[in-house]
Write a structure and sequence with these properties.
By secondary structure, this protein is mainly α. The protein has 12 helices and no strands. It has one domain.
Length: 266
């Protein structure tokens, strides 16, 4: 049977970007940017994205395209005879299992909040009361299990439908919807009181926050934490390190350059 391909190039880019865009970019990025000096952190993050994360993404794409397999089998296909490179796949598989445990749980929380919001449960509640609702959800294993299983079921249904009719079709709609939501949030953010100060904080580097501390040792420790956070964020951005992107690399045709596709996804 001939291996199924993405129907359009846009579909490949959106699916790859959809794999990369998640909590690390939407929630974690602004949080650690605020902690480490706004644009000062962004500059360091972009450097790590260019010199570490992008090359790693290209390598994952290369392994996928050369083997035409996922991380579970690519090492077996590509390794020289007699070598043991295939043992590394178990680390990647373990990482992917842990990732799915995390995201199916968080997806269940989100679905629960959609249901609660639609039913009017949050009407008139203060933020502390909404937090109480969330804590109540965490204390109810039956609710958690039901919502998580629904998320798993949706995921299984989409992937069983295939690359074009399932993953690509759904991702196109959801990524476009995410784009619209983010644009609306950006417009809302820059029209709030204090928006000018917020933009100034984000765009004007404050390197003093990278070296916060009373002693030289504390300053170096803070800088080390900032470097670690920026490097981790760069890898989060393009979702490399566990072999997930090698799956998408296996669908890149020979008529497209791996570097070009990696830059577009990033």
């Amino acid at each position: 049977m001939e291996r199924e391909k993405f129907g359009t190039r846009l579909g490949f880019i959106l699916v790859s970007a959809g794999c990369a865009i998640g909590l690390g970019n939407v929630w974690r990025f602004p949080y650690i940017t605020g902690e480490y000096g706004g644009a000062a952190f962004v500059i360091m993050y972009l450097v790590f994205l260019a010199i570490f994360a992008l090359p790693a993404l290209i390598m994952e794409f290369a392994a996928g395209r050369a083997s035409q397999r996922s991380i579970a089998r690519s090492y077996d296909v590509l390794e020289p005879a007699g070598t043991k490179w295939h043992t590394f796949k178990w680390l990647a598989l373990a990482g992917n299992y842990l990732l799915m445990m995390f995201y199916t749980t968080v997806g269940g929380w989100m679905l629960a909040f959609v249901v609660k919001s639609a039913s009017g449960e949050f009407v008139g509640l203060e933020s502390s009361q909404v937090a109480d609702v969330f804590n109540g959800l965490l204390a109810d294993p039956v609710q958690l299990a039901v919502y998580m299983l629904i998320i798993v079921g949706v995921g299984v249904g989409v992937t069983r439908a295939g690359v074009q009719k399932g993953v690509e079709r759904v991702t196109k709609v959801m990524m476009m919807a995410l784009f619209v939501v983010l644009v609306a949030l950006c417009v809302r953010a820059v029209t709030l009181p204090g928006a000018a100060e917020g933009l100034r904080f984000y765009l004007m580097p404050d390197f003093s926050k990278m070296f916060a501390g009373a002693t030289l040792a504390e300053q170096l420790a803070t800088f080390g934490d900032a470097v670690y956070a920026a490097m981790g964020q760069a890898f989060f951005t393009v979702s490399v390190g566990m072999g997930g992107m090698s799956i998408f690399g296996s669908y890149i045709g020979k008529d497209h350059t791996l570097t070009g596709e990696a830059v577009r996804v990033a």
